């Protein structure tokens, strides 16, 4: 390889520029050296004096003056026209950019199919959720909730056994059934029946793995005083307690994402300000509830 290839136009331009800079430097330096040799101390002096030394009165260099004026004009434009102090912020610009991007995203995926929705949800889960819940969604050895059971009968049974806390409802945390209604729901079959009733009748999902237990579950739902907080219709008595009609639906996932949760085993932060779009939240829910999870 040649160290200097003059057939390359870039090298030619660079060499010409270097020669021009060198010539200009020699010319300017020569003028200053000549001026230092030939110049005489003459001109009007300033009135200020220090230790017998006074300075010549010199006008501000033209380049400096022009620069000052340009900077002043630019500053006035920047503060009052380009980016007004009372109406612009970088955070505001960032939020507007995010909103615009989210709008494009929603438009692109407006008619997304079920399979693509699940794949999108899996990708979002791996980026946003797997650090705590694990890549298998099983809770990472108890560090976070086991999402394999979430939105299913097993999740309800787990809540019946252990209670639930941290969603910030006015009626407070749910205690284990052994403390709420001792002597009721003493066996696994009864708990499974209540879970079947919630999933098959109350939830908008309207599907359960145990349809034969739904009618029994309805009786036990009342006997265990579940209706005292959740209401007979399961809607949570106007926000006083969790709305069981959302359980097993994307709306339930969205609620937990936006509220966060201070649970028994740790705190899940709110994702309300994480700029997830409605489609992304829906996709995450479909993945969690899918057979792939």
Describe what you observe in this structure.
- The chain has a domain at 117-289.
- It has 13 helices and two strands; from the N terminus they run ααααααααααααββα.
- It has helices at 9-38, 62-82, 90-108, 114-128, 130-133, 153-162, 177-180, 188-202, 214-223, 227-230, 236-239, 250-259, 278-289, and strands spanning 261-262, 267-268.
- A two-stranded antiparallel ribbon has the order 1-2.
- The chain is elongated and about 115 Å long.
- The mean pLDDT is 89.
Explain the layout of strands and helices:
Elements lengths: L8 H30 L23 H21 L7 H19 L5 H15 L1 H4 L19 H10 L14 H4 L7 H15 L11 H10 L3 H4 L5 H4 L10 H10 L1 E2 L4 E2 L9 H12 L4
**What's the end-to-end separation, in Å?**
58 Å
Structural class: mainly alpha
Biggest sheet architecture: 2 strands, antiparallel
Contiguous low-pLDDT stretches (5 residues minimum) are none
Q: Supply Rg.
A: 37 Å
Share of helix, binned = 40-55%
Number of strands: 2
> Which sequence of SSEs, written as H and E, runs from N to C?
HHHHHHHHHHHHEEH
Strand content: under 5%
Mean pLDDT: 89
How would you describe the shape?
A: elongated
Number of separate helices: 13
As laid out across the biggest beta sheet, the strand order is: 1-2
Short account of what is shown:
The chain has 293 residues and is an all-alpha fold. The chain has a domain at 117-289. It is built from 13 helices and 2 strands, in the order H-H-H-H-H-H-H-H-H-H-H-H-E-E-H.
